[in-house]
Structures are given as C-alpha cells and as structure tokens.
Design goal:
single chain; about 260 residues; alpha+beta; 7 helices; 12 strands; globular
C-alpha cells in the first residue's frame, strides 16, 4: 500500500448519546450481567483461538536474511538476542519517506511498555522496515522509541512476508496481502512470529495483517470500554503522531504526557 497511513477496517461510528437510556441501578445490573455472559464467552473463544494459533504448523526458514542495524549488519538469528521466540512488526517506512506510517507509529507507541514484560519471558522484538536505516533513525529518535528497529533494504524479507509489493508482482497477480490478492504496490504493515530451537534452526510460526494488529493496541482496548468507543468517523482518522496533537494537557504534570497544563 503506497500511502503512509495504515488503513484498517474498523468498527462503526460511535452511537448518538444524546438520548441514551437511563435506568435504575437494578435494571442496569440485570443488563450488565446479561452482557457479562457474552463477554465471558468471548474471552473463552479468544483462549480457544490462541490455542489454535499456537498449534499451527511451522515453516522452516531456509533463506538467509541480513538486516542493517545501528551497530552494523545483523541476521534474523541475531534479532532473537538470546531468546527462542521473536515478534517482528513490519513497520511501513518505505525508501525516501520522511516519517513513518501514522497507524504503524500509533502501534509503535505501545511496543516499549510491553517489552518491559515479555522480554523477561523468552520473547524478543524488533521492527523491520524497507527504508535504509539512515532514513528512519531520525524519526525513531524524534519519537523517543527504544525498541530495536532494523532495515531490510536490499533483501527479500519484506517481499517474502508479503508487506511490500512491486508493480510487476501486482500486475502478474502475484502480490498477496492478508492472504488475498493485492493490487496495490508499495508498503504495508503486519506482524510475523518466529521460533528458534536449540540447534539454531528458525521457523516461521505466524503472521497477521490488517486488523490483526489490533491485538496489541491497548489504546483501542481501553477506549472500547467507554460510551463513545473509539469515537471516530473514519478508521483511525483522529490518530496523529504523538508529538503532533494540538490540544494542550488538561490534567497538569501528574498525567505524564509532558505537555503544559491549560490555564
């Protein structure tokens, strides 16, 4: 996808709250318990799907991939950093871009806080983009992200994992995104997971694309608890790079956003 913002098919616009039902506490409790039954079934279904995800067969990675990191060339095996599991986020930052994809940047704001925990449970993480390292390194510094981010420029990695597409691939019907034919060209986003055994063999275990990225979007999960939900007219239309929101903080220093509080 040639645009610099990830386009995800999202939920419908928030409901009109101007005439929302208001009931007694007893009526609310009855409605809440009815919904709780559905929520519990959803959680159980999530557990079942997660088990099926773990049970998927693997594909051995026989091709050698080399990436450009801040300390020089690194291999796919190096990205595991001593762990047996690796999550790679395919970050949309194509050659010549000045900023990363807005949607990918939104997701990236969640990476470092999660890494504080899962890296202690045998899971490594890295972002991979097709642009040369020198092109996205200033953007990473600007965003104050700490997660490993390497360049796949000059390798087949992005093409093999179906997040970059050439015009020739699209014209020949060989471009695939989210397991379906893709007619667009350029860059797209996704998540791929790998496992490395004690012999050093690497296996591709899972990839997801499009709305699959929502699994790591804590912001959306929290907003989904509120009356207005994600409160958007177009999917992610309100999301900006975190240093470009125009409104000032209303909470003061205690909120931790770094902006000065409104008078």
């Amino acid at each position: 996808m040639s645009t610099q913002s990830a386009i995800l098919e999202g939920p419908p616009a928030p409901p009109d709250l101007s005439d929302h039902a208001v009931v007694s506490r007893e009526e609310w409790l009855a409605a809440r318990k009815a919904l709780l039954k559905k929520e519990k079934e959803l959680y159980r279904e999530r557990d079942r799907i997660a088990a099926q995800r773990r049970a998927l067969p693997w594909v051995k990675v026989d091709k050698s991939y080399t990436f450009e990191g801040p300390d020089g060339k690194v291999t796919l095996a190096d990205l595991f950093r001593g762990r047996s599991q690796l999550i790679i986020y395919h970050f949309m930052f194509g050659p010549g871009w000045k900023e990363g994809c807005g949607g990918c940047s939104f997701l990236a704001d969640h990476f470092d806080s999660a890494r504080l925990h899962f890296e202690h449970r045998d899971v490594a993480f890295a972002a991979v983009s097709r642009a040369p390292l020198a092109e996205f390194a200033p953007f990473k510094q600007r965003m104050e992200w700490k997660f490993p981010w390497v360049s796949s420029n000059g390798s087949d990695f992005n093409y093999d994992y179906h997040v970059s597409f050439t015009e020739e691939q699209a014209a020949a019907g060989k471009a695939m995104y989210n397991y379906a034919p893709e007619t667009d060209t350029g860059e797209s986003h996704g998540i791929s997971v790998f496992y490395k055994n004690e012999k050093g063999e690497i296996f591709h275990t899972y990839s997801c694309y499009a709305r699959g990225g929502e699994e790591i979007l804590g912001t959306f999960m929290m907003m989904d608890l509120t009356p207005k939900g994600r409160n958007e007219e177009g999917t992610m239309s309100w999301v900006q790079l975190h240093d470009q929101y125009e409104d000032d903080c209303t909470e003061g220093p205690s909120c931790g956003c770094g902006k000065e509080a409104k008078a």
